[in-house]
Every structure is written in structure tokens, then in C-alpha cells.
Design goal:
The complex is a heterodimer. Chain A is α/β, with parallel strands linked by helices. In chain A, 37% of the residues lie in helices and 18% in strands. In chain A, the strands form two sheets. Chain A has a nine-stranded mixed sheet with strand order 3-2-4-7-1-8-11-10-9, with helices on both faces. Chain A has a two-stranded antiparallel ribbon with strand order 5-6. Chain A is globular, with a radius of gyration of 19 Å. By secondary structure, chain B is mainly beta. Chain B is globular and about 45 Å long. The chains are: A alpha/beta, B mainly beta.
Chain lengths: 384, 126
């Protein structure tokens, strides 16, 4: 298998936009190609993440639409949908495409538009990623899914609402250092704990926002990468799944798909959790960050809450998690999120993350979770 | 073509009558609900339907206060993952239990919830 590198990244401002998701992706893709110093004509395939386009934009077939809006209508395109992990799944397949020798230059990314509909509508559309007959009929929401995880984690390990709130405070603080972030404002523990209940015990500030935005990456073979200014190497990209239904998961305090994807990624790269310098992980809810830090092996099961509270995951801490602000503060345009996390880690490994730079970062990890914890992708990156 | 032992539709028809149905693997004894084609433990296809008592305890729960459009008028409502006494779990609405009394480990009993001709899994006080 050939080595694969990321040589270009682009991310739109996250927040509310009045442009279509295809236009948002095209902006990110143009930035990524400029960063890679490659013309659009060099792209040989587009792997694209988009989740609720069918609902919020009445738009399917978003792969070729995005390619057309970008102006590369003839490249093969595929739209990936693994709920919130869509563009990370697209990334993994692009890596395999190049590693196998099929393509030299592949554009990867995604975009989402949801702030053009009401919160009730988007809550419904996001819930489509849980089972229609067994779960949606009960009125289960995504905050509800992670509230079940939170209660189980609290009951098993004694994790507290204040520890979860510490994740939100930390990620908002990081977000103030990211000019692309949806929220660039610090919040206090009190504000989190006093915010309105969404799905007990998760409060408004435990939840990431609805977000419009796009992200893009240029992936190339080693041969092309050697001519690039600052390639960042893909050391591993692994996917894992788990039962779709909440009721089939034996232990709600854990996310086994994270543990399996992480084990596979570490094995591919010949690395372990202690080798990682910077992490962008899927903090769709504060408890999700706590459970992910445990599943990735950064902390023992049950220690994720303590780690957040003690600042071990803050910039300057033992292992900085979500220096971008994470989904919580940077925002979560679901189809773009996996690619945006990778863009942040690439920026960190280039040493180009300005005020949010993790000093001397050599190895980076991204973790993206799909919907009800049934999909997880983990990738590892390194610099020359 | 082998007919499935129990389909999703059968499960909810029986549930509407007040009876929860699981499947036991005739090869390894694995218990499962809802229906699956192959046993996830031994990959055999030798399911036999068995009735569940309907009794269990709350493994985790939440109170939904921001709901999808179809359920917006019902907030606040409780959803729990319930560990059934036989060893399988089911997700359901908790009804007739004051929200402040909900706790992990609380015993509950199955009851069908029928709305608009559709049956959903519910749990009430044990």
C-alpha cells in the first residue's frame, strides 16, 4: 500500500450562512486547493459527506452537485452518509483509493446546512439517524441518546454534572482562539450548570450547536506529496461500528466502536495513546468528550471526567483535546465535521495554529462519531 | 428462504396485547430482542421465540425537554433503557412514575403504549 498525505486544507467560517451546502463546500475546497498549490483540474475524485441535505435543502445526489458547483463536473464523486461521521468515512475511503494506486489526487470534505430550518425540524432530522420504529417512535433525540450515556456513566463512575460542564468551559475557551469558530466567547461553569435542561442531565451548554459550514482536504500519493511544501502523513485511518439500537448496547457508559476503531488505528500506525500530542475528538455533547478520551485510551475508564475537571485536556495540559474549540464551540456542520477535525490536526502538525498551537505537536489524532454511537472513525497523522 | 421466527411487526402486535417476545438461540442460548437474522454470538439461525415477564430495572434514563416536531406537545417525557429480568434490554417511555422519582435501578414493568394505531414500548411502576 502507498503512503498518503494531506497537502491542503480549507474550512469555512462555522455558523449561520445564507449559501447552499454545495456553495459552502466549494469555498472550503477552493481554499484547500490553493493551500495545496494545485489546480482544480488536478482532482481525480471527490469523496463527499452530507447528511440531512435531503431534508433541509430538498437535495439528494449532493456529490455531483458539489463537484459541479466547484467546477469539476466530470470527476467521479460519491456521497458518504454515516451520520455525523460522514466526511471522516469519506476521508478513509479516499485514503484507501490513493493507497491502492487508483488515484493520485483526491478531494475530500463535506458540508451541511441546517440553520435554514427551525430547531424542532433539525432535531427531528438528526433523530432520523436513530432507528425509525424502535426509537424515533418514542421521541428519542440525540441529546437524549447522550443523556442515557451520561446517566450510565454517572451511575457507574460517579461522574458529575460539574465535570461535564468543565468540558464545555474548556472548549469555549479554546474557541476564543479560533477565528473560524461559531462561538468565540468564554463561558463559566455556573452558566453551563444553570442553562436550560435539554435532556436530563444534559443542559443547553452541554450540547454542541446546529451549524452551517463546509470543510475540504486535498489528499495525495507520496509521489505528489514529495513536491508539496508541507505534507502531513496519514499514519492510520480506521472505522468501527456497533449495534444500531441503544437497547442492544450492553454498557451505555462506554462506546465500544471508539475502542475498536482506536485499537485498529494504533495497530496500523504502530503507535499507542501516549504517543499522541494533539487530539480533535467528537464532543457533540460534553459527556461524549469524556467517554471518547477514555475509549481512545488517553485516560482510564471512569477517569475522563476528572481529567476534564483538572485541566489535563486543556491547551497546555497533559494531552490537549479539541484546541479548535471542538464541536461544542467551533460548531458542528455534521457533514463537514470529520474533515474539519482533520484540517485542524493538519494545521497543528504544521505548527500553523497561531494562538491555539499545541507546542511541538508531532502526532495528531482525530475521532468522529456517527449518530447513536454506531459509527466511529479514528485517524492518526504525523509530520516529516 | 427461511421464514424469520419473529418479525418486527409480530413483536409489536404481541406487545400491543401486553406480551413482550424475545428470541433464544437454539444453538448457544443467546437471548435477543428485537429480531435479528443471525445470532450475533454463534452466527447460527436457530431462533426460538420466548415470552418475557415484562419486569426489569432502569439501566439509564433521560427526560426529554426539547423534542422532535412529532413529539413537541408531549414534553417533558421520560425515556429509559430497561434491563429486563431475563437479561436483554429494551428502550421505552416511562409513564405514571413522577419524573423526580426516576433513578438508575428503579424496578419497572412493561406496558404497551398505543397512539395513532402504532404501538410503542412503555414502562410503568413495577
Amino acid at each position: 500500500m502507498r503512503r498518503v498525505a494531506v497537502i491542503g486544507v480549507g474550512v469555512t467560517k462555522f455558523g449561520k450562512h445564507d449559501r447552499t451546502s454545495a456553495e459552502l463546500f466549494a469555498e472550503a475546497a477552493a481554499d484547500a486547493l490553493a493551500d495545496a498549490e494545485l489546480p482544480a483540474s488536478a482532482v481525480q475524485a471527490l469523496y463527499y459527506g452530507n447528511v440531512v441535505g435531503g431534508e433541509t435543502e430538498k437535495q439528494l445526489h449532493t456529490g455531483p452537485q458539489a463537484a459541479s458547483v466547484l467546477g469539476i463536473p466530470t470527476v467521479p464523486t460519491t456521497r458518504f452518509e454515516t451520520a455525523c461521521a460522514s466526511s471522516h468515512a469519506a476521508f478513509r475511503h479516499a485514503v484507501m483509493d490513493i493507497a491502492s494506486g487508483t488515484s493520485e489526487v483526491v478531494l475530500v470534505g463535506g458540508a451541511e446546512r441546517v440553520l435554514n430550518v427551525t430547531t424542532e425540524e433539525s432535531t427531528e432530522y438528526f433523530a432520523y439517524a436513530s432507528d425509525a420504529r424502535w426509537e424515533q417512535t418514542l421521541g428519542l433525540t440525540f441529546p437524549g441518546v447522550f443523556a442515557l450515556v451520561a446517566r450510565a456513566h454517572m451511575a457507574r463512575y460517579g461522574t458529575t454534572e460539574a465535570q461535564m460542564a468543565a468540558v464545555a468551559v474548556k472548549n469555549h475557551k479554546h474557541g476564543t482562539l479560533n477565528p473560524k469558530a461559531q462561538f468565540q466567547k468564554e463561558i463559566t461553569l455556573e452558566q453551563v450548570l444553570r442553562s436550560a435542561m435539554v435532556a436530563d442531565p444534559l443542559k443547553l451548554y452541554d450540547c454542541c450547536p446546529f451549524t452551517d459550514g463546509g470543510a475540504a482536504l486535498v489528499l495525495v500519493s507520496e509521489e505528489v506529496a514529495r513536491k508539496a511544501r508541507r505534507p502531513i502523513w496519514v499514519l492510520a485511518s480506521a472505522a468501527a461500528s456497533d449495534w444500531m439500537l441503544i437497547s442492544d448496547k450492553r454498557d451505555l457508559s462506554r462506546v465500544p466502536a471508539t475502542e475498536r476503531a482506536a485499537a485498529a488505528a494504533y495497530r496500523q500506525a504502530g503507535l499507542g495513546p501516549t504517543d499522541v500530542d494533539v487530539v480533535e475528538l467528537h464532543d457533540c455533547f460534553t459527556i461524549a468528550e469524556i467517554v471518547a478520551t477514555e475509549g481512545l485510551g488517553l485516560f482510564e475508564p471512569g477517569a475522563g471526567g476528572v481529567a476534564a475537571e483538572k485541566g489535563w485536556t486543556s491547551l497546555g495540559g497533559k494531552i490537549p483535546v479539541n484546541p479548535s474549540g471542538g464541536l461544542k464551540a467551533k460548531g458542528h456542520p455534521i457533514g463537514a465535521t470529520g474533515a474539519a477535525q482533520i484540517a485542524e490536526v493538519v494545521t497543528q502538525l504544521r505548527g500553523a495554529a497561531d494562538r491555539r498551537q499545541v507546542d511541538g505537536a508531532k502526532i495528531g489524532l482525530t475521532h468522529t462519531l456517527g449518530g447513536n454511537t454506531a459509527t466511529v472513525l479514528v485517524s492518526l497523522f504525523g509530520r516529516d | 428462504m427461511t421464514e424469520p421466527v419473529i418479525t418486527q411487526r409480530h413483536f409489536f402486535e404481541k406487545a400491543r396485547e401486553g406480551q413482550l417476545t424475545a428470541m433464544r438461540c437454539g444453538h448457544c442460548g443467546e437471548l435477543s430482542v428485537p429480531p435479528k437474522t443471525f445470532c450475533p454470538t454463534c452466527s447460527q439461525r436457530r431462533w426460538e421465540p420466548i415470552g418475557l415477564s415484562g419486569e426489569g430495572t432502569i439501566a439509564s434514563y433521560t427526560i426529554i425537554r426539547v423534542a422532535p416536531r412529532a413529539h413537541a406537545a408531549e414534553v417533558p417525557y421520560a425515556i429509559a433503557a430497561v434491563h429486563m429480568n431475563e437479561g436483554v434490554s429494551l428502550l421505552g417511555r416511562v409513564v405514571d412514575v413522577p419524573l423526580e422519582r426516576l433513578t438508575v435501578g428503579l424496578p419497572v414493568r412493561f406496558r404497551p403504549l398505543v397512539s395513532g394505531g402504532q404501538t410503542a414500548v412503555g414502562f410503568g411502576p413495577a
